[in-house]
Amino acid sequence: MQESYDEFSKRDTVVIAISQEDKDLASAKKIMKAFKGKTPPFSVAVDANRKNTIHYDRTTTYFIDKGGIVRQIFPMLIHHRASWETILSEVDRLTQGT
Description:
- The chain is α+β, with helices and mostly antiparallel strands.
- It has one domain (2-92).
- It is 30% helix and 17% strand.
- A two-stranded parallel ribbon has the order 1-2. The chain has a two-stranded antiparallel ribbon with strand order 3-4.
């Protein structure tokens, strides 16, 4: 998985995970347990009670450009998500010529 994140970095693309399920910061620490004490290769933000992300789907990936414009949406289900290769390919397509 680290190799995939390195590919995003090479493309000057930042990956941010948003934890929306938690009620407070203390309960949000659960997501960090999945990394077994290691720092994840991407930023993790917490939106307790979905105050700021209520209009975004819980399992979907959004490609947002540096100006804050949503350029692509990758609809997903909990057990069916787009591959990193698919997302990287779309990053390449959308950023050509920039």
